[in-house]
Amino acid sequence: MRVATWNVNSIRQRMEHLARYAEAARPDVICLQETKCADEAFPALEARALGYESAFHGQAAYNGVAILSRRRPKVVARGLPGAPADAQARYLEALVAGERGPVRVASLYLPNGNPPDTDKYAYKMAWMDRLSAHAAELLRAPEPVVLAGDFNVIPSPGDVYDPEAWASDALFLPETRARFQRLLALGLIDAIRALDERPGQYTFFDYQAGAWRRNKGLRIDHVLLSAAARAGLRSAAIDREVRGWERPSDHVPVRVDLDL
Q1: 209 pLDDT exceeds 90?
Q2: Is 221 annotated as catalytic?
Q3: Is 119 assigned a catalytic role?
């Protein structure tokens, strides 16, 4: 099973990119973030033409997550549990069929949190606490678990081109990184780091200041695996060449191959 995650920064603007990527990488499952469209506007028919059934949780113009699967995904959660009043479309969880049984996959778009001295950062911290609580529950489930998406977290200095320049950013504050490490301490594994510890592997390049051309990037898009999913991990890669396409998203896909 090949699982990819990609913050597409507007699904309707990136359908040609999605089609090109699906043909080149041939993922079985694609987790999308920042779809930026309400559910009734999601291009499910276009996704089906590419060979995917869609599950989506969206809102107009902001946020939005989706799971595309070669086999129909069975949605088990629309929205992150723990705060029923939270209307932001940032979390979608589904069961997808693997060769050896169902796999529990979540597509998530974690809050940015900037500026850090505002309620936006408090929301980010609360969201991460809810994610940890829910992940602890998921790890007791019988299926392998894959949490994939834009975490808006730079886990370590090796994951940012200039750590000092980002020291006061919500993506890199000690409190943010500590909460990410709390997720890993539950028993989740960072798929990229499980196979490759080299620094300088980035998934996001800003549109400003020639960031892509100058390799000034961040690693903020992650695939986290339960122990059962990690046992099936065969490869993990960042498809950075996608950033060089015409009118690209500022994020690039991350993909993993799982023997599940």
Answers
A1: no
A2: no
A3: no
